[in-house]
Amino acid sequence: DWVRAIGGVKETIARSNANLDVLKEFVAANDWIEFLAKTPETLSNTSVCFIVQAAPDQVKSMVKLLDKEGVAYDIGAYRDAPPGLRIWCGATVDAADLEALLPWLTWAYKEATAA
What we know:
The chain is 50% helix and 12% strand. It contains four helices and three strands, in the order H-H-E-E-H-E-H. Strands 1-2-3 form a three-stranded antiparallel β-sheet.
């Protein structure tokens, strides 16, 4: 019912693409984070995975800081992936919420890599 109410599958795809665009802008503006996917064909617009230019323990620290602050939960990369983050960006997420998250990512990165 919710999908129909917002405009159907076409709108859910548009929302996911808009969310991915928010993250693309963030990655383009920050040299410490990049997409895990190396080609546009493999870049997901729902479960977006990132590599963070930091030591594995620093990335774990970022994840813990974000959790402690109540900003993001379960945001760490999958166990077999390089040190990084993953963010759900499907249609159930509002772009404004992603935009609110991004300064926190920068803060956590700076905190974790300051030492």
